[in-house]
Amino acid sequence: MIIDTLKTPKVALGTWAWGDSGEAGDGYFGSSLTQAGLEELADKAQTAGFMLWDTAVVYGMGRSETVLGEVLKRFARRDYQLSTKFTPQAAGAGESPMAEMLEQSLKRLGADYIDLYWIHNPADVARWTPHLIPLLKSGKVKHVGVSNHNLSEIERADHILGEAGFRVEAIQNHYSLVYRNAEDAGILDYCRKRGIPFFAYMVLEQGALSGKYSPQNPLPEGTDRAKAYNDMLPQLKALTDKLASIGQVQGAAAPDVATAWALAKGTTPIIGVTKPSHIEGLVRATTMTISSDDIAELEALANAAHVNTRGWWEKDMRV
C-alpha cells in the first residue's frame, strides 16, 4: 500500500533551535533568530538542494513548526519536504490524539500533508503505532518512521505496520562521534540490511563538536545546552582540534568534518541550522571525503574523551 519510496536527502535541516522563545532566542539553545535571517537561510538551502526540514511539536511547544511554516511560505509545497513528530508524552486525552496532534502540526506548518511523520518517543508501541495507519491511508502522511525506539521496539512497530501493508520507513536516533549507542545496539546494521534510512540527530552535540566552543568560550550561559555540555568541553578539546585539522586540509571547518563522518557511516545527518553560513558548511560536508584512517582516529579520540551525552529523554538503546 506504500505508494512511493521515501526520497532521502543527503542531509536534513534541523529546526529544534527555532523553537527558542522570542526573537533573541532565549530558550534551550540561546540562538539569535530573526525572520529575515531564517528566510535568507531557507533561500540558500533551496539553492543548494537541501529540501527536507525536520521539526516537532515539542520544539518550543509548536513554536518551531509555526516559525518554519512562515519561512517556507515563500516556496511551492512541492519544492520541499516536511518532517515532524507525534510525541506520546504530549498527547491529548481526546478520542484520536495522534490525528489531533497531526492536524495542529499541519495548521502551524501551513500544509495539507507531511512527507515524513514520526512517533517521537516510545511510550507504548502496541498502543500508538496502529494510529499511524489511518493517517497513511488518508494521504495526510506520506511516510512514517520511529524516533528514540530501541531495536525490539522498532521491530514491533514494523510488524504492526506490516500487517496493514505498510512499514517503518525511517529511524531517527541520537548519533554522533561521542554517542554511538545506536551503532552499538545493532540499529545501524538493522537499517543497512533492510535499506531503511537512519536519520542521525545531535551529530554536532548541540554545538559542542563545532569547534566554536571551549572552556574559555563556553556555550551561552543560562541555556540548557550550556548546562549539559560546558563541563565536558575540556575533555572534547583533542577531538574538536582533530576535526578542525582535518577540515583545514580540505578548506572546511570542524562541524563540516563531524557531518562528513556521519555521512561516511551511512546515515542521514539532521543538522540544526540557524544561520545562512550553516548551509555553506553543509555544502562542504556533502562534497568532502573523509578517509578511513581519519574516521578511526576521530573515533579513538571520541572514545578517549569518556563523555556521556545521552539526553534526559533518551534511554540506553543497548538494553
From TrEMBL:
Q: Does the keyword Oxidoreductase apply?
A: yes
In the record, what terms sit under GO molecular function? oxidoreductase activity
Q: What CDD domains does the database record attribute to this sequence?
A: AKR_unchar
List, for all copies, the residue spans of the domain called NADP-dependent oxidoreductase.
Answer: 11-302
Keyword Oxidoreductase carried by entry: yes
Keyword annotations: Oxidoreductase
UniProt name for this protein = Aldo/keto reductase
